[in-house]
């Protein structure tokens, strides 16, 4: 497979992944309206990390499926393909949320930039070489940013704790460490 065909396949995957990542970030920000759910559901989602990750995975699956249908004239893709894309995006999400603060901010801006460049790519119908190369470059830069940010954060957490658990590191805990301030007003 030559490089152009490889990048063409990559281009087909990037759009739903970037859009899905942005939708996921917005959905997580929507967490602050969670008190509109029943008390039982609020408790389940507040105290059960498996339920939280299941909701994330299901949201990604439905979002990718809906986006694919929208961009392919209501044609369904193979559900196993959707599942594979969902798994890839879920792993990307886990890596994205386990980076140092600087790399998280940088990766967020790269993600938004990649989305904007993708919009220009659609506008020019993939014929503008500068836009195509910018998209490829931003994709590579984003992948490197996420990888390096994840490795640095992992090293930081291993160095901080004697009882480090990779499972806890990846899937998180229900409450943040008390030393981490979440509310700037306090």
Describe what this molecule looks like in 3D.
The protein is mainly α. The protein has one domain. Helix content is 74%, strand content 0%. The longest helix has 32 residues, at 129-160. The N and C termini lie far apart (56 Å).
What keywords describe this structure?
globular; disordered C terminus; 7 helices; 74% helix; 186 residues; mainly alpha
Instruction: Tell the overall outline.
Output: globular
Overall pLDDT, averaged? 81
| Total strands | 0
Can you tell me the number of structural domains? Answer: 1
Low-pLDDT windows of residues = 182-186
Q: Level of helix content?
A: over 70%
Multimeric organization: single chain
The Rg value, from CA coordinates, equals 18 Å
Query: What summary fits the major beta sheet?
Result: none
Strand content: under 5%
By secondary-structure content and strand pairing, the structural class works out as mainly alpha
Give the N-terminus to C-terminus distance in angstroms: 56 Å
Counted by DSSP, the helix tally is 7
What is the ordering of alpha helices and beta strands?
Answer: HHHHHHH
What is the strand and helix layout of this fold?
Blueprint: H1 3-29, H2 39-47, H3 49-71, H4 79-96, H5 101-123, H6 129-160, H7 166-171
Helix pairs in contact: 1-3, 1-5, 3-4, 5-6
